[in-house]
What does this fold into?
Amino acid sequence: MNATEETPMPEDVDVKEDKLHFVAPGIQDNPDGWGPCELPDQFKDMPYQPFSKGDRLGKIADWTGSAYQDKKFTNKYASQFGSGSQYAYYHDEDETTFHLVDNTRAQKPPYQRGRFGRNQRNMRGRGGQRGGMNQMQALGKLKLRERERKGQSKRWGRQQGGFRNNRNQPQIKNRDASVTVRPDWVTIEEMDFPRLAKLSLPAVKDGEDVLCCGSLEFYDKSYDRVNVKNEKPLQRIDRVFHTVTTTDDPVIRKLSKTEGNVYATDAILATIMCCTRSNYSWDIVIEKIGDKLFFDKRDNTEFDLLTVNETSVEPPQDEGNSLNSPRNLALEATFINHNFSQQALKSNENRYTFDEGNPFISEEEEEDVASVAYRYRKWDLNNGIILIARCEHDAVIQGPNNDTQFLTVKALNEWDSKLANGVEWRQKLDSQRGAVLANELRNNACKLAKWTVQALLAGSDQIKFGYVSRAMVRDSSKHVILGTQQYKPNEFATQINLNMDNAWGILRCIIDICMKQKDGKYLIMKDPNKPMIRLYNIPDNTFESDGDEDDDEDEATHDAFQS
It folds into this structure.
């Protein structure tokens, strides 16, 4: 049959089709809004759970109820229109007498599931008795409860900074200020640490030497071979350490007439630059005379003492004459640092001597003065701010190319690893020295940062750290050297996240604020319990003695600076 041929239609077939008619549905007009006005008949009396467009509807069919509930997000599938079962039945008359009795088994958290299930299955397969299995379950529950209790108390201790595994241990007490704020002091500025941490003064060039004084002994390289198995006892070396403040320094008095307009010591500068890492209170006196600023520390204060575990989660809190009180630990750390920095030197050999002698030595102290060299350096902080600072070196060493390298020698001390939340040095120092140093960086972040800043300001080639521990935990008078470690200051600063641009920015900010004030005396103090520092305007006679001799000396100093 040809495909093009059409199939004839039977004559009895009606080719006319009925026309389709469109029936328009009824439209409900809602004058008050949009949507239907009433519920259609086919949807009446049908249970319905309202939900929001943003609700998570969960699984299509969940016959186990809360068995597959997401523990991490307990309200993940909760409706915004209220909680409860989707088709809960509430009768108006029985609503007041309705009580839900839940006999379902409490769901364990994920970390408790399946711990003893494997043992139970094995016992069933081996014919274990039900009584023994029940005992194991009870024992497992007791262990889990004990673990939860310890974990909870440990978390509470971290959050509150207090008791750890011991709920009766007191919380961290409010610290006392380093100086009592008097009513006649006027608060000029309050600078909180978050704002200070955002400051930056880049492109500050290295300091230039203005004058070098003093003499240095050579470092004894045999202390680099000291380890835990070959420890050395720390010796008591009676030498004089001068901690002269800025305005009492005769060299700075002389330089103030010709060089710079801001004067300080490396210890004062390091305290200001690393203030955002400090927790303990400290204070620095600033005297503005004309267009010059002098940064001083107060006499007979604890400014030069080394803090111990200042930035720890649980800092020392013992009081009074306790062996581990903050003040006694600071005295012990300072004692250790002085003795180690002198013991690790070759005292019987010739010293490396600068052209100028030590400016603080008297004739009686000439043989008993510690090995120290003073470097008076100058920095240009832009906008006419020229900084003059006295920096210190502790020792020298012969370099690989027979060059002379200057050292900063410091000592880290271990007092009680259990109380200090630290690691046992005698077990970890030889094998895991990085872990020991990381723990020290966590507990003494401010002290290590200040040491690094002092080494950078002085231009030291290396920092030598000594690890010194108590010979007996309950005796703070005898110590042993367990090892040493050395770093380049720039590399160590990078390792401890010390940003010198931020450090210079903090110093420059304080200098600018003080330069805008009128002539007089000011004081910077770290708040003892808050992360901020305050600048006070204080009377000129504050902290001065009533003696006639002291007054005459202060007047002479004032006249010398003005001239």
About this structure: The chain is about 25% helix and 20% strand. Confidence is low (pLDDT under 50) at residues 1-7, 115-132, 162-170, 546-563.
